[in-house]
Amino acid sequence: VDFKTGYRPAHVPPAYMVQMAAYRALMQAAKPEKPVRCALVWTRSTQIEWLDGGELDIYLADILAGQRKPS
């Protein structure tokens, strides 16, 4: 879970997806026997937004291919 100030936008900014994909990969490496889910908590709108694992996999593949930089 990562806390973000402000209101939940219509779409998660790509920079946040890159950040969460990197966090998720680190947690999966640390605890391979455990499922890892990621969420953003929007503090102004008091909402939790669970992120799609498939989308995070795509962002991670981009990071590993050098197409995106982790935050």
Structure description:
The protein has two helices and three strands. β1 (2-4), α1 (14-30) and β2 (39-42) form a beta-alpha-beta unit. The protein is α+β, with helices and mostly antiparallel strands. The protein has a three-stranded mixed β-sheet with strand order 1-2-3, with no helix packed on it.
Short description:
With 71 residues, this protein is an alpha+beta fold.
Shape: globular
Give the CA-CA distance, first to last residue.
Answer: 15 Å
The gyration radius over C-alpha positions equals 12 Å
What can be said about the biggest beta sheet?
3 strands, mixed
How helix-rich are the residues, as a percent range?
40-55%
Which segments are poorly predicted (pLDDT under 50) over 5 or more consecutive residues?
A: none
Helices and strands, in order, run as: EHEEH
How do the helices and strands line up, and which of them pair or pack?
Layout: E1 2-4, H1 14-30, E2 39-42, E3 47-50, H2 53-64
Parallel strand pairs: 1-2
Antiparallel strand pairs: 2-3
Helix pairs in contact: 1-2
Short key terms for the protein model shown above:
three-stranded mixed sheet; alpha+beta; 71 residues; 2 helices
